[in-house]
């Protein structure tokens, strides 16, 4: 229990924007979904499968889809169990994204220092520095353009139209009657 109290205190101190004054999660963050959630941060976008799909669509048009694919592959790699499976996935990531002959080569500093010999003794965080570089590239470059793109804006508009549709309003009225009785 004391651990939970410490974590709550930590979150209040360092993330006040996600808590109300009493340390409870802010209701506005609990209700955010879709494009509203995507617009809060790249992290939020990457946590939503639909957000990833739309971001990939955008990056494909910008000829940089390999960035998000590499980031996703690294996230999946971290969950890999067993040395043989790690070796196979590490080699696949290297050959797809990092090798000089890679089909979807990402542009990262230090990729030349990552030689094929490291693939023999893989560990879950072996690509972390390179993944961080790609994340920052997306965060400070592609992500801001994505939020201004037709893909994002059209999806946002269709969400707003769905929310304002007569069916959605009727469902909301029914729900409020049920909960207010």
UniProtKB/TrEMBL annotation:
Alphabetical UniProt keywords: GTPase activation, Signal
Any Gene Ontology CC annotation: plasma membrane
Chain intervals for the UniProt region annotation (Disordered): 157-181
Domain of life: Eukaryota
Biological-process GO terms, alphabetical: regulation of G protein-coupled receptor signaling pathway
InterPro entries per UniProt: RGS, RGS10/12/14-like, RGS10_RGS, RGS_sf, RGS_subdom1/3, RGS_subdomain_2
Ribosomal protein listed as a keyword: no
Origin species: Picathartes gymnocephalus (White-necked rockfowl)
Name the record gives this protein: RGS10 protein
Annotated Pfam families: RGS
Coiled-coil residue spans: none
A molecular function GO annotation: GTPase activator activity
PANTHER family cross-referenced by the UniProt entry: REGULATOR OF G-PROTEIN SIGNALING LOCO (PTHR45945:SF3)
Signal sequence extent: 1-23
Transmembrane stretches, start-end: none
Domain RGS per the UniProt entry, residue ranges: 41-152
């Amino acid at each position: 229990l004391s651990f939970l109290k410490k974590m709550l205190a930590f979150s209040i101190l360092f993330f006040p924007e996600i808590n109300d004054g009493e340390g409870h999660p802010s209701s506005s963050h609990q209700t955010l979904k879709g494009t509203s959630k995507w617009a809060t941060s790249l992290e939020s976008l990457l946590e939503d499968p639909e957000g990833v799909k739309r971001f990939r669509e955008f990056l494909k048009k910008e000829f940089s889809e390999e960035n998000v694919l590499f980031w996703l592959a690294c996230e999946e790699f971290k969950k890999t169990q067993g040395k043989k499976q790690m070796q196979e996935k590490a080699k696949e990531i290297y050959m797809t994204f990092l090798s000089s002959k890679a089909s979807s080569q990402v542009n990262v500093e230090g990729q030349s220092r990552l030689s094929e010999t490291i693939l023999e003794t893989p560990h879950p965080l072996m690509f972390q520095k390179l993944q961080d570089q790609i994340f920052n590239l997306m965060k400070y470059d592609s992500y801001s353009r994505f939020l201004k793109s037709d893909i994002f804006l059209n999806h946002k508009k269709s969400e707003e139209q769905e929310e304002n549709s007569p069916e959605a309003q009727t469902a909301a009225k029914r729900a409020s009657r049920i909960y207010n009785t």
